[in-house]
Amino acid sequence: MTLGGCNPEPARPAAPPPVVEPVLAEARMHMVRDQIVARGITDPRVLEAMTRVPRHEFVPAAQRGEAYEDWPLPIGYGQTISQPYIVAFMTAALGPGPGDRVLEIGTGSGYQAAVLSCLVAEVYTVEIVDPLARRAEADLKRLGYANVKVRAGDGHHGWPEAAPFDAIIVTCAPEQVPQALVEQLREGGRMIIPVGSQWGAQELYLLRKTPTGMQRQGVLPVRFVPMVKGRS
Description:
Shape: globular
Distance between the termini: 39 Å
Low-confidence stretches: 1-5, 7-19
Largest sheet: 7 strands, mixed
Mean pLDDT: 90
Radius of gyration: 17 Å
Helix content: 25-40%
Number of strands: 9
Order of helices and strands: HHEEHEHEHEEHEEE
Strand order of the largest sheet: 5-4-3-6-7-8-9
Number of helices: 6
C-alpha cells in the first residue's frame, strides 16, 4: 500500500554495493529519530514520509555518505538540498492533506517534492536552474513519484495555469512574498516561505489566505539561498 504518491520501495540503482542500502536505511531511521522527532516534530504522516523517501538518491554520489547527516549539502549550481529537519519542519507546518494540490518553488534536487508527493494528491514544482530541473524530473520519475510535475522557470511567476493551489512551499528566499504566489493560493490555503535578503536576516513565515487578506506568522529564523529572477 502506498501513501499518496509515495513509492514505499523506490527503484534501486542497477548494481548497488550489497552493504550500502542497509546502512543507508538504518541511517535514515536515525535521521528521523535523532534529528526530527527529537526536535519536536510528531506528525505521523510527515515522519513516515521522511522515513520512506531515500534522501541519498537526491544528492550527488560523492555526498551519499553524508545524505542523512544534520546539515544541508551542495547539489551544484550554487544550490543545496536542505537540512532534513528543515524539510520536515516546513512540511509539518504546511499541514498538507491527502487531497491537496501543492506548488513548490525551488525544486533543487527534488527531495522536498518527493516528501510532499507522499502526503498530497499533486505536486507542481518550479526550478529556475534548467539542469537541476531536468535532473530532478528524471530522478523523481526513476524513483516512482508519479504525482509530481516539474517545470524549469522563474518561481516568481508560479504555475498560473494549474492554480489555485491548496498550499505553496517556497525553498528559496525572496526579499518580499511574490504577489503571483499570493494570487495562486486558494482562499483558506497556506504558504510557507523564507523572506529576507541574501546577506541579512531571513525569517520563515507561515501565511494563510483569508477573505480579508493574508495572515502572517513568523515561525523560525532561517538561511536559504536567494530566490532569483530569470526566465519566465
